[in-house]
Amino acid sequence: MRKIIASLFISLDGVVEAPDQWHFPYFNDEMGAAVDAVLGASDTLLIGRKTYDSFAGAWPDREAAGGEDAHFAKKLGDARKIVLSRQDLSFTWRNSELFKGDFADAVTALKNEPGGDIALSGSVSVVRQLMAHGLLDELHLLVHPIAVRKGMRLFDEAETTIPLKLLSSATFSTGVLHLVYAPAESTADATYEDAKTHLPQGDQ
User: Fold this and answer.
1) Distances from the Cα of 196 to the Cαs of 5, 21, 162, 191, 203, in angstroms?
2) d(CA 78, CA 55)
3) Sheet containing strand 44-48, strands side by side
4) Left, alpha or beta for 35 (phi > 0: left; psi -120 to 50: alpha)?
5) Which of 1, 19, 24, 199 is deepest in the core (most CB within 10 A)?
6) What predicted TM-score, i.e. pTM, was given to this entire model?
7) pLDDT tens digits, one per residue of 2-28
């Protein structure tokens, strides 16, 4: 079964909105490699309409310009792009199509198709839906050492928790943390009485 991997720029206080306004000072070769390892290595992108509009408004021109990022732009252009939108859309970027069907059923069918990993970049609403349905396999968070203090956060308020397990971590020279999570089993019930056994004991 194919894996679905989401990669997000996120601030220290959990903001994921408008990263173009705060993340560029931290973008270096390390972050570029981390982004390419997800987006560049996937043959399918699953994205929301706003993210698609942003990508389609920039990457085709960058590919045509033939600059330093043209190779990465071509990878995105060649990938299959499935866009979630409540509206009918007219696509100009190649290999783009509209997501159709019930969300959970259609995503499960997509995961069962032959092919490589399915990637997401941004598209917070899609990431939330995937987590809610237990369909997200990995969550890559590039945690920037800045408190943005306004804007949409990754995790909205809800009655249920989302347990995760840390698969790997790396620290970039800019202070950005690259944290990779996967879904975890629900945490067991515990109280302070359970926790205090792990506190340092006084001299005997």
Assistant:
1) 37, 43, 24, 9, 16
2) 13
3) 96-98, 80-84, 44-48, 118-121, 4-11, 138-144, 177-183, 164-171
4) alpha
5) 19
6) 0.91
7) 999 999 999 999 999 999 999 999 999
